[in-house]
């Protein structure tokens, strides 16, 4: 019985040897030979070259922006879309052949741009202008303009915007939107003269404790001389002058007279105050200045208070002071801080 079993085993072994010699054993293999792994923000096509043996190759991507285009033989081609964001991103391409898996990391940098942050340009007296603005990007740049009187040309570092003299008789503002990827900047260009400032304005300001609203009316009296009236506060005669594109209001002028119930009289003098609250600015050599600005919420232009450096101290705004009949300072009457006219 044992002899029979040994004979069968010998025959089986001979059969196995014969089978191995007729069909050689293939060991599965998968190696990455070459690949495109780094991309600029603009994107493009990439490839992965393989050395594979024994199994069909499949490929998949972990993200939509990196998509597999084709898998043929030992080559995988894929596409990377434009990265409009400023952050770098990474995708994983998973390559499989049977039970073997390889992973290839694909990295794409974000948008790289350099551009001018200042977005508001004003030109007093309606003069013609040419304004160079830096704007470079690793992605295509598009420019749109909302007025036909504003034009531009391309330069090595960005764009040059220009306009002829404004002869329309009123202020005008043009906007150029420069966009690249997710970056979009509205550059605004204002041409104005004294006539564009003379009107009724909606005013917002702080009285030192809360925000308040009022109506400011600016009228031209003679030449560059102006008069400002403030409705709710009751001031009708505030003298100012248009100079170098700004409205300059001299301090020290008496703008109202207030008679109290006890019979005393106060004379209200327009002035200013330093940030420390220790100095009252009432000299006629000090001016409170209003200049054009851009309201970032409404994207409309208006006027706002700025410290023009005419005082040795910093100015926090317009502060009207109460003077006694002898000229002594009794204290402030009202404050007009953070003033914006729209």
Automatic annotation (TrEMBL):
BACON domain segment(s): 58-108
Q: Extract the CDD domains matched here.
A: BACON
A Pfam entry, by short name: BACON
Ranges annotated as spanning the membrane: none
Show the InterPro entries listed in the entry. Answer: BACON (IPR024361), Ig-like_fold (IPR013783)
PROSITE patterns reported for this sequence:
PROKAR_LIPOPROTEIN
* Protein name, entry field: BACON domain-containing protein
């Amino acid at each position: 019985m044992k002899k029979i079993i040994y004979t069968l085993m010998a025959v089986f072994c001979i059969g196995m040897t014969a089978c191995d010699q007729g069909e050689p054993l293939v060991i599965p293999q998968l190696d990455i030979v070459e690949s495109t792994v780094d991309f600029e923000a603009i994107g493009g096509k990439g490839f992965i070259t393989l050395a594979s043996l024994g199994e069909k190759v499949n490929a998949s991507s972990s993200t939509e922006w990196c998509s597999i285009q084709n898998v043929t033989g030992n080559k995988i081609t894929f596409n990377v879309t434009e990265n409009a964001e400023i952050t770098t991103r990474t995708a994983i391409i998973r390559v499989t052949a049977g039970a073997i898996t390889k992973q290839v990391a694909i990295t794409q940098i974000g948008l790289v741009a350099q551009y001018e942050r200042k977005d508001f340009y004003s030109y007093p007296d309606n003069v013609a202008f040419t304004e160079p603005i830096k704007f470079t990007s690793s992605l295509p740049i598009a420019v749109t303009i909302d007025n036909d009187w504003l034009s531009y040309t391309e330069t090595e570092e960005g764009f040059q915007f220009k306009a002829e003299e404004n002869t329309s008789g009123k202020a005008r503002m043009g906007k150029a939107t420069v966009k690249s990827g997710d970056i979009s900047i509205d550059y605004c260009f204002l041409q104005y003269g004294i006539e564009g400032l003379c009107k009724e304005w909606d005013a917002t300001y702080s009285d030192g404790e809360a925000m308040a609203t009022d109506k400011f009316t600016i009228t031209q009296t003679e030449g560059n001389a102006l008069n400002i009236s403030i409705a709710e506060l009751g001031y009708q005669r505030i003298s100012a002058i248009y100079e170098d594109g700004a409205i300059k209001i001299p301090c020290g002028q008496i703008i109202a007279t207030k008679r109290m119930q006890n019979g005393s009289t106060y004379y209200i003098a327009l002035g200013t105050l330093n940030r420390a609250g220790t100095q009252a600015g009432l000299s006629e050599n000090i001016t409170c200045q209003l200049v054009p600005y851009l309201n970032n919420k409404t994207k409309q232009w208006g006027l706002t208070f700025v410290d023009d450096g005419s005082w040795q101290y910093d100015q926090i705004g317009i502060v009207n002071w109460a003077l006694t009949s002898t000229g002594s300072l009794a204290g402030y009457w009202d404050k007009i801080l953070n003033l914006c006219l729209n």
